[in-house]
Design a protein that fits this description.
4 domains; four-stranded antiparallel beta sheet; 2 helices; 30 strands; about 5% helix
Length: about 325
Amino acid sequence: MRLSKYIKGVFLVVVLLFTFNIVYAVCKPGETNAVACSSFCSNCPSSGQHTFSSYNIDMMGHKCVCKNTFTGGTWWTHCGIGLNPWTCKQACYPKTCSDFGCGVHYDGCSKNINCGPCCTSHADDSCYNNDVYWYDSCGVREDKKQECSHCTNCDCTGWSYYCSGEDVWRTQDCHNRGCSVDSCTDTIVTLNEKYSECNDCVECNCEGFGPNYCKNGDLYHNQTCYNQGCSGTSCYSNPTVVEALVEDCIVDCVDNACLNYIDIGLRIYDGTQTVVIAAEPLGTVTSALRIAKGATIYGLVLVDVGDAFASRVRINTASGIMALRKL
């Protein structure tokens, strides 16, 4: 009997202990969770020998009941019959960078967290690879803002030709497109280049003198030469006749030859006809054969016997036999 009372007393103590056992769970502030009794009735038998029912819990502390279950002819009541009051134990759940995105922030519990720099998109623009690109406030390149159509010496106007330094040059205006600092640029450049070299000369590239001819009592000849250079937009080569004095005839020029001798009235018969004998003009006497006419002495012209103007009159000289020249 006493033993039975003793056992009942022990049982009552156990029931009271379990009845007033306060079970703590961790909840976020203001949160309502569904928690199974198995989280708290640690003294209950293993799963399968009992069932649990759970209630919503919050920081105010709702109840969790472990029900006894009849299994194998035995009632399992180790978890206690009745209500086990419990309450949530407050805990701090720190915020993370997913809550802030960027920057340095207090996590709400114990420390600051660095979530990296906060970068503003399209904060600035700058040139890259000859186009204008957007950059965020952290200096990271983003999408292209403007296409600059980079090119060098493009979309030219076409060549224009002109003379410079007696040569032909040509010029044209072209575009140089690209990017400078933070904007597209389009610069007009003028290109100049030598197109053709002209021969700059006066009376050059002459073709050689032609036959002699008489002009104004003297003996001349001429040749075709060229005046060359640059005029307008091209080279030129203009022919010109260049005349040169061959001989300043002393007397006259007759039949494309100088008449440098005079007629002093000396005549001879050479066997077939009477011919005029040529004499040297006054002041030009060089011949060794001379003749006086009054007070004036003239030199008689001597030529080789084979000369076209040789008369049939022969004179023996120190240089050999010569002939009087016919006029």
